[in-house]
Specification:
331 residues, mainly alpha
């Protein structure tokens, strides 16, 4: 069984340290309102200018802080601490906040980047020897407020397995809200149940050619987080009624990645890692037969993509985060 070891953690830390302050190449999520808005990543985003795009930089920082906590003797820990002290600082947070005050930023990084920023601040709260959480607090609050304003008007969930996926954002945001904002936690539970409670017999038509999340399994994991266990089991059995027969077969079959230098096709390594995370996260709520299937499926998906978290920058700037999610999950 694949496990998170100190050696693997050290490798992931080195990967992330290699990209969180690498400014180029970079893909901006930026609307130009005039020639004065023609600016580079570092000018727009004083903290999250690295890692090819804003959201990958955010969860690259999440990975670094999490590994620092999980492995206090990590060789890279002193470098992580020094860099975090420099970057996750009030003046730079103020610059990130100022970006949100620009015109046309209402949809900036919605909802994936929002959720990862909350996850980062929640992880920072666990590092009580540093001021990172306090310094990131205003930025987390800004994105929590955006969730509060947005979810009531999101009539339909977004089910695609890319950055727009609603269920994935609910999972990450709920962990933050349960500690920091009871009103948001209640809203996340209410909207998630409204979106997914009546879903039945999921066909598992996936993956799409550029997906890095499993729409089916991410929804199932979301409902596990939202529902009491007694309510989740009946929902899950109706959602995937033929699981014992390994149907839908697509959910048990790792995605084939034909070109890891193509940024969109490289997403499919992510779908394998995120499925492993979901299968492991679901296993503990299932009966022994289904749990065994879930664990075996997780291992198959890890086998397919864990060797490829580095090598080409199109995957290297983000895949280790999803590998950590999968490896840390208790199967």
């Amino acid at each position: 069984m694949h496990q998170l070891t100190a050696e693997t953690a050290a490798r992931f830390a080195e990967i992330a340290l290699g990209h969180v302050i690498r400014e180029y190449p970079h893909k901006l999520d930026h609307v130009l309102d005039g020639p004065e808005d023609v600016l580079g990543p570092r000018a727009l985003h004083p903290i999250f200018f690295g890692s090819f795009d804003w959201h990958s930089c955010v969860h690259g920082w999440w990975l670094l802080l999490r590994l620092r906590r999980l492995f206090p003797d990590l060789p890279a820990a002193p470098r992580i601490e020094r860099l975090a002290d420099e970057m996750l600082a009030p003046g730079k947070v103020a610059g990130e906040l100022a970006y949100l005050d620009r015109a046309y930023t209402g949809g900036f990084e919605r909802p994936y980047g929002w959720a990862w920023l909350l996850a980062l601040q929640r992880e920072a709260q666990r590092h009580e020897d540093r001021a990172w959480a306090e310094d990131l607090g205003p930025l987390a609050r800004a994105f929590a407020d955006r969730f509060l304003a947005f979810l009531p008007k999101l009539t339909y969930p977004i089910r695609t397995g890319t950055h727009f996926n609603t269920a994935f954002a609910l999972i990450l945001a709920l962990e933050w809200a349960e500690v920091n904002d009871a009103r948001l936690a209640d809203l996340l539970r209410a909207r998630g149940q409204a979106y997914y409670d009546t879903d039945r017999a999921c066909p598992g038509w996936e993956p799409g050619g550029d997906e890095f999340l499993s729409p089916a399994l991410t929804e199932a994991l979301c409902m596990r987080r939202l529902l009491p266990e007694a309510a989740f089991r009946p929902w899950f059995d109706a959602f995937l009624p033929d699981l014992v027969a390994r149907e839908p077969a697509s959910l048990f079959t790792p995605a084939h990645v034909s070109d890891r230098s193509d940024g969109k096709i490289a997403h499919l390594d992510g779908v394998n890692l995120s499925r492993a995370w979901c299968w492991r996260g679901l296993a503990g709520a299932l009966d022994p037969e289904r749990a065994a299937l879930a664990r075996a499926a997780a291992e198959a998906h890890l086998d397919a993509s864990l060797p490829h978290v580095a090598g080409d920058y199109m995957g290297e700037h983000w895949l280790a985060t999803f590998a950590l999610l999968a490896l840390e999950a208790v199967p």
